[in-house]
Amino acid sequence: MTHIPSTHTDFVIEREFDATPEAVFMAWADPEAKRRWSDCHAEYTTGYRLDFRPLGHETHRVAYPDGRIQEIEKVFFDIAPARRIVFAYDIRLDGRRLSASLVTVEFFASQRGTRMVYTEQLAYLDGHEDRALRLRGTEEGLDKLGLELAASTSVH
C-alpha cells in the first residue's frame, strides 16, 4: 500500500456580534443553542450530544440519503468562560478518518459587543483535502451563530 503523506493547513475567521462575550460564549455552551446554529446537515442528523466541560465530548452523526455516515467527535481541552474554548475534533466518513483539527475560539469585548476569533489548524489524512469547503462551512455556521445571537437578544 502506498503511503500518502498528511497535509496541513489553517485558517482564522473573525466575527463581530452585538452581544456580550458571556452571551456569545453561552451560545457555544448551551446544547440546544449550539445544535441550532452549528448543525449544517440538520435534516440528516441522527445523533447529537454535547458535554461542555474540560475533557467533555461533543458528538454529531449524520446519515446521508445515499447511505454514507459522517461522524464528528470533539474533545474540549480548555474552557475559560467568556474568554476561550480550545477543542480538537475529527471527521470520519463511513468509518474512514478524513481529518483532525485543533480549534481555539477567543472572545474579546468590543464596542459593538464581542469580537470572536476562531482559529483552526487541520491535518488532512490519506489524501483527503477540502479546505475551501471546510472554510465555507465554518463561515456559514458562524453566520448562523450571529442569527442565533440576534434572535436570543431580541427575545430579552
TrEMBL record:
Superkingdom as given in the UniProt entry: Bacteria
Family matches, as SUPFAM superfamilies: Bet v1-like (SSF55961)
Domain Activator of Hsp90 ATPase homologue 1/2-like C-terminal: 18-144
Membership in a protein family: Belongs to the AHA1 family.
Protein name: Uncharacterized protein YndB with AHSA1/START domain
Organism: Tahibacter aquaticus
Origin organism lineage: Bacteria, Pseudomonadati, Pseudomonadota, Gammaproteobacteria, Lysobacterales
